[in-house]
């Protein structure tokens, strides 16, 4: 088990504080923490000023810009183009901007699209998961998420979650940061596959009838763990199915077993959203996806994230950070 992300939510605006936090991060052992992150507040007018304060340190990533859909979204691309360690998001909290957001996604190149997400929710979200994670809080704070797929499969999830909670509390105290809690989401990374857990529990390949209830039962298990340990859950705290980060999901997409409509159906039972999915660059299709996602979020009443990677219709796409990603079939 590792902490997938140890994340500072930086709101004080003090350059001295930011430098201090980054210096502390450099001392954190890599075998415990996989990624170190800093999230900035949403809707900061002087984004360029904030960006200019960021120390140039390898191994730390930043979510620097978070705008509502009514804004000029090209600003996100302009900001992220200055550094590959920058991430950003769009908050879609009004359906009338659905087509604008679809056009924005359609305009992105594939590499840039991996660093931009759309959040369908009433407000910006405080979570360690980028790109949607923003510092929508009052004080400089700390949180974390974890990779515990193996532990979850082996009934050792309680110990993993307890360790993450204790480690993050201790680190926050040492850094002088308020501790917010843990995003307890069950998220994959390649061979540590959430798709495999779903198949193992159900006994059938994705996608089959019954998998909605399987995912729902896994979310219930996450909830029960959090409740038992008295961990403060933040962000999504749900099963996550980012296709490009899960070997089994990618294989099922290649085989044609898992199609777009089926993946969308899974997101209706409290999967965090349609994430890291290569979809043929088709504006009308994107509009439909956004509108259906709004409908699902309205029903779920839970934060819903979208990260579509526009692809060329050739069956797969190559990304530097992820390798070959299969394009999902529509029907």
Can you give a write-up of this model?
- The chain is of the alpha/beta class and 331 residues long.
- It has one domain (2-326): Anaerobic Ribonucleotide-triphosphate Reductase Large Chain.
- 37% of the residues lie in helices and 22% in strands.
- The protein has helices at residues 15-25, 47-52, 74-80, 98-107, 110-113, 149-153, 157-175, 194-202, 211-229, 247-255, 260-266, 283-300; strands at residues 2-9, 33-39, 60-68, 86-92, 116-120, 141-147, 178-183, 273-280, 304-311, 316-319, 323-326.
- The longest helix has 19 residues, at 157-175.
- The chain is globular, with a radius of gyration of 19 Å.
- The model has no long low-confidence stretch (mean pLDDT 95).
- InterPro entries: UCP027893, UPF0210.
- This is DUF711 family protein.
- It comes from Stygiolobus caldivivus.
- Pfam families: DUF711.
């Amino acid at each position: 088990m590792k902490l997938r992300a140890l994340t500072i939510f930086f709101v004080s605006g003090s350059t001295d504080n930011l430098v201090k936090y980054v210096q502390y991060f450099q001392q954190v052992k890599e075998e415990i923490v996989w990624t170190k992150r800093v999230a900035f507040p949403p809707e900061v007018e002087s984004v360029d000023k904030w960006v200019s304060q960021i120390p140039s340190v390898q191994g730390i990533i930043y979510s620097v810009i978070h705008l509502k859909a009514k804004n000029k979204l090209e600003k996100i691309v302009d900001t992220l183009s200055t550094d590959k360690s920058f991430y950003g998001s769009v908050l879609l909290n009004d359906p009338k901007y659905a087509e604008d957001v679809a056009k924005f996604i359609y305009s992105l190149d594939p590499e840039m699209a991996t660093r931009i997400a759309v959040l369908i929710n009433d407000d910006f979200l405080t979570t360690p998961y980028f790109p949607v994670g923003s510092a929508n809080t009052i004080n400089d704070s700390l949180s974390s998420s974890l990779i515990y797929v193996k532990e979850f499969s082996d009934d050792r999830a309680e110990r993993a979650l307890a360790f993450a909670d204790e480690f993050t509390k201790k680190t926050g105290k040492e850094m002088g940061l308020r501790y917010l809690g843990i995003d307890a989401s069950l998220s994959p990374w390649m061979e540590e596959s959430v798709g495999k857990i779903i198949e193992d529990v159900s006994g059938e390949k994705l996608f089959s009838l019954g998998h909605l209830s399987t995912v729902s039962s896994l979310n219930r298990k996450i909830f029960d763990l959090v409740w038992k340990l008295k961990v403060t859950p933040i962000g999504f705290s749900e099963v996550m199915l980012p296709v490009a980060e899960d070997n089994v999901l990618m294989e099922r997409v290649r085989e044609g077993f898992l199609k777009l409509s089926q993946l969308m159906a899974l997101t209706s039972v409290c999967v965090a959203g349609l994430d890291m999915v290569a979809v043929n660059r088709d504006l009308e299709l994107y509009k439909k996806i956004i509108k259906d996602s709004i409908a699902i979020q309205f029903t779920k009443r839970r934060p819903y994230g979208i990260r579509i990677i526009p692809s060329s219709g050739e069956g797969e796409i190559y990304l530097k950070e992820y390798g070959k990603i299969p394009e999902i079939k529509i029907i």
